[in-house]
Every structure is written in structure tokens, then in C-alpha cells.
Amino acid sequence: MTDQNHDEIPEVIPDYVEPAAPPSLDSEAAEKAAAERDIAVGVGQTLVEIDNLSVTFGGLTALDSVSFDIKRGEILGLIGPNGAGKTTCFNAMTGVYKPSGGDVRLEGVSLLRKKQHTITRMGLARTFQNIRLWGEMTALENVAVGLDTRHRTSLFGAMLGIPRHRREEKSTIERGMALLEFVGIAEAAMTKASALPYGHQRRLEIARALATDPKLLCLDEPAAGFNPAEKEDLMELIRTIRDDGYTVLLIEHDMKLVMGVTDRIVVLEFGKLLAEGPPKEIRENPAVISAYLGEEAQV
Ligand SMILES: Nc1ncnc2c1ncn2[C@@H]1O[C@H](COP(=O)(O)OP(=O)(O)OP(=O)(O)O)[C@@H](O)[C@H]1O
């Protein structure tokens, strides 16, 4: 949904910041958090195809025949001025909005007409611009909800306490704790989500999305409301997530963050694809600069 927080609008395109070396991973936490995943298989292959995707709201075309690919193992930035169609694109990909045309394919399989929870199970997870956590549940319980989407025990099996259910319960706690550790908030595992500091809530959202073991993690403005130091930490976390074998699609208004963390960038303007390329190229693209200058002039 459109965010009217103009504090987040970049001052045109700031100086390019060369990405720092990735931090070392806590390999034990990473292994528990993603025990069943084939890490870094097929890096660089097409994971998601956005194919002539269109979304209309009444007379308004919010997304107009947009096409781009997301490659396995990359951090792809999705940027554009306010109202360009970024969140609409996320919503069409994740089954929140029904596209009026085109297709979205994950590993060649169309996501159209699939329910949101089916799309999650197929491997597409997201966070929201406005944090959506279960406020009365602890941080660990919030992550457990994500992990539950992967369990195979039937309700009947759970009621009978069959060994597989007990194993799954134990692994939920272990993997949940590993995920909280992975995003850096393990000490807050037993704290109610609503009582967590804002930055921890953002990290918890990411942990909950990772709990579904996604092939693609979509982050919608994860740095909104962060101070510069928190943004630096977030960039490090996003790189760590990518280096652990996940593919990331990132909507973000903060240009320093986008330029510093992404491998490639797709730019939307007025619902259309404006440009696509590596950060250095995008930063120097006259059409992109003028799109942002236009936005600045409107502020
Ligand atoms: N549910 C909706 N009903 C009607 N119009 C909508 C809806 N969602 C989005 N729009 C409109 O579609 C256009 C694209 O909005 P969208 O939120 O996707 O842009 P955005 O690029 O994510 O912007 P922002 O950076 O401000 O979040 C805007 O004109 C917006 O007002």
C-alpha cells in the first residue's frame, strides 16, 4: 500500500557505496535454521518470471505489462517513486491481488489463481511495509507459526502425540530458536511481539518469513523507520541471508541501502518498467535520475 512517509524519499541518487565484505555466518545457527535446504543450488538460474504482469484498480492501471526475472541467489532491488507500483507487484506475486493480465511463474509453475497460503508453501514468503505480527504471542511463537506451514503431521496425529508430531514439536523449538539467533534477536525469544523494540519487530518479521523456508524472500521496505546504524545492520543481515542461499527481492526507498546491498535493480515508474541493471548502471541512468527528480519536485 502506498506509504506517504516522505522522510524515506532519497535525495536523488546519493554516492554509490561499494558493498562491504559479507560477514561470517554463524554456521551452526544457519544449519539448524535451514537444515533441509539445498544451499546455493543453481545460483544464477531463473527462479521467478514476472511475465507481462498487469494490475488494474477500477480505471487505474497500477501495473502495466511489467516483465522481469529474478535469478536464484541474487538480491534484486525493486525501486521507483511513490505510487510506481512496487507493492502492487508484490501483492500480485503473493496472491493478494488478482492480476488483470500476464503471469508470475516460480520455477516455471504459474502462481496465478493460487491461494496465498499455497504460494507460501510453494516457496514465496514476504514481509509487510506495516509490520504484521501476532502481538500477544512471543517472538518464538511467531516464528513457530511460519515453521508450522512446513509440518506434515495431521491434526489427528498431533492429538495422539505420535512420534513424528513430537519430533516436529522439538524441531520447531530448535529451528525457531536458530532462526531468532540468525536474525540476531534470540535473547527476546520469550518476549511478546508487541513488547519488542521496533527494530526487533522488523527482524522478527524476517525470521517468520524465513521459517517457511522460502525460495524467494520478498522484503517490503524493511528499513522503514530505521536510523543509519540500524540500516547498516539490516544491510548486513540481508547479505547474510543471501549468502546463506536465499534469493531476496527488496523494495526499499533508501537509495544508499539499495545501492549498497543489491546485485541488480529493477525500476518502475507509473506502473511500467523504466530500467533494469546493476546498481552502478541504474545510478547513472538519466531516465531513473529524472524519475526521482520528478518525485523530489512534487514533495
Ligand atoms: N488496493 C488498491 N486500490 C486502489 N488503488 C490502489 C490499491 N493499491 C495500490 N493502488 C494504487 O496503485 C498505484 C501503485 O501503488 P503501490 O502502492 O503499488 O505503489 P508503490 O510503488 O508501492 O508506492 P510506495 O513507494 O508509495 O509504497 C498507486 O496509484 C496506488 O494509489
Automatic annotation (TrEMBL):
User: Which keywords does this chain's UniProt record carry?
Assistant: ATP-binding, Nucleotide-binding, Transport
Annotated ABC transporter domain residues: 48-295
Annotated Pfam families: ABC_tran, BCA_ABC_TP_C
Residue ranges of region Disordered? 1-28
Q: Which CDD domains match?
A: ABC_Mj1267_LivG_branched
Q: Which GO terms describe its molecular function?
A: ATP binding
Q: Give the signal sequence positions.
A: none
Name of the molecule in the record: ABC transporter ATP-binding protein
Q: Which organism is it from?
A: Nocardioides eburneus
